[in-house]
């Protein structure tokens, strides 16, 4: 992604308003913090990078009028706060030079090493292509940044620090751009910070985005919180004093901090739960930091002995950490005057991770808690590479990543007891794909807590899920309407696209063979040189791509056949059109029209419409009369021996008598047919219309079903329907 999306950091082509007196003090603070953890030789290299960046940006100023170098310096200062290594700090100081100056990646590599150059390149924007929309360019830049992040997490840490400073200085740009950048930050960058465990940064980005996106709502809430702070100060102080005096009686040494709910958290809670501000009671809370895990649970018991806990409000993130590595005990207590207060209990190491997330790897390298977080982060970054390999384009990839950024809130168990975290609202299908792609692709049913359940059942914390698979099962497109995880959505789409492409290519090859037959040439006789010449002139990638385009209706087989042989159509040309045989199981490239529902034995015609592939209609389908241009008619016929079932709809008019529906069902079953749907019309005076959707093998099979039904005395009339509009 870009080194900046914000115009706040864009170099302005104008003179400075006034020399920035604060730059010298900003640089002094930066150097002082560097000296706390870097070696002298590393500090010298960082100093050289500052001089290099200052020279490259000389004459450029931010929209606010500040010298442009003040922005890279602020970004680097944030990284120094996380104790990142010298290469990352150097890259932060130079993160805009490739984009805004004539400096190249090669020059950076020669001066400061290949690693720094790769980091700068990962943060820099792609050049926008001529025909790309703004949205396409944005999605492609996100894709580049996230894939660079998968190779080196420091890329995203630099980008997040860059976005933080842009948000802090957003007042300098026009309101419409300010809102766009704030929305983008709220939707993408804040969730990434959360996913990486950078809790402090996550909250600050949310607060800044809220202030710029909804300035009036922010001011009103800010005023309300200040008023509430005064009203509740006495109660909060009383609870704080009680906790401080109570814990030592249990021999617990703890650091106790008051915590106020952030404005955006209050706003989101009011929106999601439809509450007024006065109904949001847990604005204040306490954070208790103790020495080790056993003391966490001891402190929990002590607090529950002091104040009554709220049932259902206890969460143990020590035993089951969040996906971003966060660990803590959460409980809500009812204090004096019925005021609820959320308490968070954690160790010092857990507190460090909660505040700095993956950046704490550089702050606390020897902490085993950090190593576990690094492994989780690495697994997530690898999943981005997997999403990239299955996504069709940048926009689809970005959509998957957005879904994936919402931290899993549901924790379920495999039959072997392994814990799997999933997004809130996840279903059994999400679980199946989380276990393994093949399990997801082949799943047909599930058991939740040993009970058979639907695959679309939403999972709850603690559920034990078992997936049942079948060797020849495949993903259902309907799954896309209810799966929640990016992995499941990506895998389903990839499978369906692959399946459709293969089916379309097979159909396209048959159609082209038929087109060539019409002009006296066999497809097998077309040599490689002829194909190569055609592909080069046409710009197609491969033969399979041409077959696929024919199969989905993007190309006409007759046109491709003549272009392939470099021939023009002649009036004398004999057209002996061979028929395409239809098995009914060709896949997604061949569709049975729902307007007439043909079955084997019905006279049929085929037509190819762009993007739909080959659609099979009965020869007397009313829809055919409405079709104009843009279609190619194809001679089709049923294969002699078809081994599959087809849906057909019938209407049965029966006398109103008890037990007649059971007789109808028995007659249908006796004829070896399955009932898919049934609907009964409202009773008339003496008769009732019953509509069935049945599965039959062919027209003769249907005739057998109808014959059985006519033998029932109560049946008045039977008719086959040519559409499914009556279905429930």
UniProtKB/TrEMBL annotation:
One of its GO terms (biological process) is guanosine tetraphosphate metabolic process. Its EC number is 2.7.6.5, 3.1.7.2. GO terms for cellular component: plasma membrane. PROSITE patterns: ACT, HD, TGS. InterPro entries: ACT-like_dom_sf, ACT_dom, Beta-grasp_dom_sf, HD/PDEase_dom, HD_domain, NT_sf, RelA/Spo_fam, RelA_SpoT. Pfam families: ACT_4, HD_4, RelA_SpoT, TGS. One of its GO terms (molecular function) is guanosine-3',5'-bis(diphosphate) 3'-diphosphatase activity. Residues 649-723 form the ACT domain. Residues 1-19 have a biased composition (Low complexity). Residues 68-167 form the HD domain. Residues 1-23 are annotated as: Disordered. Residues 408-469 form the TGS domain. Keywords: Hydrolase, Transferase. CDD domains: ACT_RelA-SpoT (cd04876), HDc (cd00077), NT_Rel-Spo_like (cd05399), TGS_RSH (cd01668). It comes from the Bacteria. PANTHER family: BIFUNCTIONAL (P)PPGPP SYNTHASE_HYDROLASE SPOT, GUANOSINE-3',5'-BIS DIPHOSPHATE 3'-PYROPHOSPHOHYDROLASE. In eubacteria ppGpp (guanosine 3'-diphosphate 5'-diphosphate) is a mediator of the stringent response that coordinates a variety of cellular activities in response to changes in nutritional abundance. Belongs to the relA/spoT family. This is Bifunctional (P)ppGpp synthetase II and guanosine-3',5'-bis pyrophosphate 3'-pyrophosphohydrolase. It comes from Denitratisoma oestradiolicum.
């Amino acid at each position: 992604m870009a080194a900046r999306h914000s115009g706040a950091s864009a170099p302005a082509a104008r003179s400075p308003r006034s020399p920035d007196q604060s730059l010298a003090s900003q640089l002094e603070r930066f150097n002082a913090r560097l000296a706390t953890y870097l070696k002298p030789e590393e500090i010298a290299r960082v100093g050289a990078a500052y001089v290099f960046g200052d020279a490259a940006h000389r004459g450029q100023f931010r929209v606010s009028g500040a010298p442009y170098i003040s922005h890279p310096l602020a970004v680097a200062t944030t990284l120094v706060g996380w104790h990142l290594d010298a290469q990352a700090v150097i890259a932060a100081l130079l993160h805009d030079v490739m984009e805004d100056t004539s400096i190249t990646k090669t020059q950076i590599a020669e001066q400061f090493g290949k690693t720094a150059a790769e980091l700068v390149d990962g943060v820099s924007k792609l050049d926008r292509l001529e025909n790309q929309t703004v949205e396409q360019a944005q999605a492609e830049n996100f894709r580049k940044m996230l894939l660079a992040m998968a190779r080196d997490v420091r890329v995203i840490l630099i980008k997040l620090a860059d976005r933080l400073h842009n948000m802090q200085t957003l007042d300098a740009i026009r309101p419409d751009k300010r809102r766009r950048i704030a929305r983008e930050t709220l939707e993408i960058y804040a969730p990434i910070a959360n996913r990486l465990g950078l809790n402090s940064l996550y909250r600050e980005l949310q607060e800044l985005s809220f202030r710029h996106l909804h300035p009036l709502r922010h001011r009103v809430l800010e005023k309300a919180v200040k008023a509430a702070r005064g009203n509740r100060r006495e109660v909060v102080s009383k609870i704080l004093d009680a906790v401080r005096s109570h814990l030592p009686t249990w021999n617990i040494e703890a650091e106790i901090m008051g915590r106020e709910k952030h404005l955006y958290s209050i706003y989101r809670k009011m929106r999601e739960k439809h509450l007024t501000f006065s109904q949001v009671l847990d604005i204040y809370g306490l954070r208790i930091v103790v020495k080790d895990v056993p003391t966490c649970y001891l402190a929990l018991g002590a607090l529950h002995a002091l104040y009554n806990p709220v049932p259902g409000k206890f969460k143990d993130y020590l035993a089951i950490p969040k996906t971003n590595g966060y660990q803590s005990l959460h409980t809500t207590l009812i204090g004096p005057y019925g005021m609820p207060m959320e308490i968070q209990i954690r160790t010092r190491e857990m507190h460090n991770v909660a505040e700095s997330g993956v950046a704490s790897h550089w702050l606390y390298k020897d902490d085993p808690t950090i190593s576990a977080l690094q492994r989780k982060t690495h697994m997530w970054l690898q999943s981005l590479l997997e999403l990239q390999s299955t996504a069709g384009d940048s926009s689809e990839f970005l959509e998957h990543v957005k879904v994936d950024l919402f931290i899993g809130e549901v924790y379920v168990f495999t039959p072997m007891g392994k814990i799997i975290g999933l997004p809130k609202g996840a279903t059994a299908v999400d679980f199946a794909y989380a276990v393994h792609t093949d399990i997801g692709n082949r799943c047909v049913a599930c058991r939740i807590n040993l009970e058979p359940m639907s695959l679309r059942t939403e999972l709850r914390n603690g559920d034990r899920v078992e997936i049942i698979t079948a060797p020849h099962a495949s993903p259902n497109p309907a799954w896309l309407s209810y799966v929640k995880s990016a992995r499941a959505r990506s895998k389903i789409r990839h499978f369906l696209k692959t399946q459709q492409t293969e089916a379309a290519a097979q159909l396209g090859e048959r159609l082209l063979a038929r087109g060539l037959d019409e002009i006296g040439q066999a497809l097998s006789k077309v040599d490689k040189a002829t194909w190569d010449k055609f592909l080069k002139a046409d710009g197609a990638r491969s033969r399979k791509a041409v077959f696929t385009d024919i199969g989905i209706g993007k190309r006409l087989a007759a046109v491709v056949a003549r272009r392939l042989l470099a021939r023009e159509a002649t009036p004398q040309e004999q057209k002996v059109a061979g028929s395409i045989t239809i098995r009914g199981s060709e896949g997604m490239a061949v569709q049975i029209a729902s307007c007439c529902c043909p079955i084997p034995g019905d006279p049929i015609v085929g037509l190819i419409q762009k993007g739909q592939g080959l659609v099979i209609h009965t020869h007397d389908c009313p829809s055919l009369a409405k079709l104009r241009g843009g279609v190619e008619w194809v001679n089709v016929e049923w294969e002699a021996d078809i081994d599959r079932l087809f849906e057909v709809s019938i209407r049965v008019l029966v006398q109103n008598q008890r037990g007649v529906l059971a007789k109808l069902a028995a007659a249908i079953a006796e004829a070896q047919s399955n009932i898919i749907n049934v609907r009964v019309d409202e009773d008339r005076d003496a008769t009732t219309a019953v509509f069935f959707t049945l599965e039959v093998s062919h027209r003769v099979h249907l005739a057998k079903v109808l014959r059985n039904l006519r033998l029932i005395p109560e049946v008045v009339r039977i008719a086959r329907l040519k559409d499914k509009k009556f279905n429930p």
